[in-house]
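DM from R.C. (forwarded with permission)

"hey, sorry to bug you on a friday — could you get me a structure for this? deadline for the figure draft is monday and I only need the backbone to look sensible"
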Amino acid sequence: MKKIIILSFFVFSIALASCSGSADGGNNGGGDTPGPTGPVAPKAATLSKPANNSECLEVEAVKFEWNKSDDTTSYTLTIKNLLNSEFISQTTTSTSAEVTLSKGNPYSWYIISTNTGTATATSNKWKFYLSGEAQKNHAPFPADILAPKPGVTVNAGAIQFSWSFSDIDTSDTHTFDIYLDTKDGSSVYASNYTATKRTINLSDPGTYYWKIVTKDNHGSTSDSGVSTFIVIE
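My reply, with the result:
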């Protein structure tokens, strides 16, 4: 009789130990517990107006509008005067903002979306011309330097130079003056060039300065501003 009781107690103890182990999945507290997740990165906003490559006739304040982006708590509107490179920034929780700007200047603008996390998202960059009143002709927007990218280091030899541009007056024709030297970018390398890329052989190492002056068939011009790159052997 005592043997039966002892055997029953032994089986019961094994069963109890087995149940106790299953409470934490048999991991003894060492299981993988998902950690806290941070905020989802915001999405980029879609710009609405002023429209890209358009003429803006507003004279008091320009109204900027964009569509609401997902996972975003605030927007930073960044405006650049394309003639003097001055920036204006304004942060808002709305999807519009009014900013007073100087008339007779070309501008670019874009939106940076943010939330409580560290990630941000940047919209496309649009350009417009703030004339204040209708004009028959507008200067082309300053060219955007594409290659060599500002500050890049390239090997001596055949180097491709490229740029992009736009103009409100879509029927205008355009030519380009390429400025290139190792001093300050004031020396003309080629005039009245018609393409937006050119391969140039550079054999001497050093820092090079270059820019593009865009000209339309009405005599209006714009200056990209000087960009630099380094040539190594």
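R.C.: lifesaver. Helices lie at 2-22.
me: no worries. Residues 2-22 form the longest helix (21 residues).
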